[in-house]
Amino acid sequence: MKKFIVLILFVTPIFLSAQDFEFGFRTGFNLGNYQGEDNGGNYKFAAYGGAMFTHNLSDIVSLQTEFNYSMQGFRDHVNGESVRVDLDYISMPLLVQFTLRNYRQFKFVFGPQIAYLVRSNEDPDNFHQSLSITEFSGDDIFEDYDYGAVIGMEYEINEQFFIQARYYHGISKFYNQNAVNSDAKNRVFSLGLAFRI
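RE: above sequence
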């Protein structure tokens, strides 16, 4: 968590000191899942919300960072039992944003993302016991940090409101490998609205 806070304190002043700086809020819905050796489970419907900071480098290129509370996870079947796993993160993507010259309502974004796990929950809460995992429980089963890449598109409704659609592709494994031998990685589709102040 300390590393994550240091990163936030380092990046934020860069955007706050920029002359062509914009600030806004974003919220919407996630469809979370994972991909691993068994090709994933079922999608879990959840929500996200946060703040965004944009620095315009030119009329078509911008840098954007965000601080989001992102509710993720998945649904699956383990040993014939229905399971839901909730993974809530504080995420910070650092995105490059491109505006199409001839269609300025459309913007494309891509870039890396780091996230810190703030809450995990399993329903039923003892399903890992069926996998002979008895020395770990709760958050110990999952890694504190998650790394990946974001790609997406935005449509500007007017000067203040726009629609965002994104896909997050996790690169790091979200299970603690000392607890669960799994190469599962987060996969999240997002759709929502943003408001620019």
